[in-house]
Amino acid sequence: MPLDRKEQAERVVRGLKELFPDADCELNFTTPLDLLVATILSAQCTDERVNIVTAELFQKYHTAADYAAADQETLEEEVHSTGFFRQKSKAIRTMAQLLVAEFDGEVPKTIEEMTRLPGVARKTANVVLGTAYGIPSGIPIDTHVRRVAYRLGLTDETDPDKIERDLMEIVPREEWVWFGHAVIWLGRRICHARAPECSICFLNEICPKRGVGGPTPGKRPRRAVKSAAQLIEAGE
After folding, report:
1. How do residues 7-32 score in pLDDT, each as one tens digit?
2. At what angle do helices 143-151 and 160-170 cross, to 10 degrees?
3. In whole angstroms, what is the distance from residue 82 CA to residue 126 CA?
4. Could you tell me the pTM of the whole model?
5. 17, 142, 159, 226: which is the annotated catalytic residue?
6. Where does 32-133 sit in CATH, by number?
7. Contacts (Cβ under 8 Å, ≥6 apart) of 78
8. What pLDDT, in 10s, does the model give residues 98-152?
9. Is 123 noted as a catalytic residue in this protein?
10. Which of 60, 100, 153, 167 is most solvent-facing, going by the fewest CB within 10 Å?
11. What is the architecture of the domain spanning 5-23+147-234?
């Protein structure tokens, strides 16, 4: 009998609620601007490394005007260890300049306005809107959500926009913000890319891909897909 994705999503949500009821963003931040900068820096970098860098960065830069006026080379040095430091520094500065010019230095609260900002695609916008403002604009699709959603039978798509549409149709809107974080937690802690720990997974019994190993089918090697600039723009 074909898998009913809506019913499967309900099962997944129940299971995630039992294990990760308090799942949340693991990037440290105080303000929406902090989170926006941290999320840009998190592309192709671990949250742990970003948190080390932003511990000092947030002591120096407090407003969008501060970032907008930052010296490019200095900012590059300050975020160097997060990787792609030139692209990230430029994205942060130009993002901040637009915030100052068009939004009075404040991070906007709509997906349309957020995605106008340099370096901010849907994933980053969804993270900031959901986590900083509590606005369920969508479900952030990172490498963990992409992999876990496929393995759990919630989508067959590989394109992030299509994956997000699939998930938004079957996961209740009021759960979108928490759900995105919970799936990321599952991907980081249990459902690893090459060695998923299926034997200890609490969703083992309802997972159609239990026992699978290796990368998600249909996913091409990263180097063949996007340039560094595209990765930063996509927030990956």
Report:
1. 999 999 999 999 999 999 999 999 99
2. 60
3. 21
4. 0.88
5. 142
6. 1.10.340.30
7. 53, 56, 57, 60
8. 999 999 999 999 999 999 999 899 999 999 999 999 999 999 999 999 999 999 9
9. yes
10. 60
11. Orthogonal Bundle (1.10)
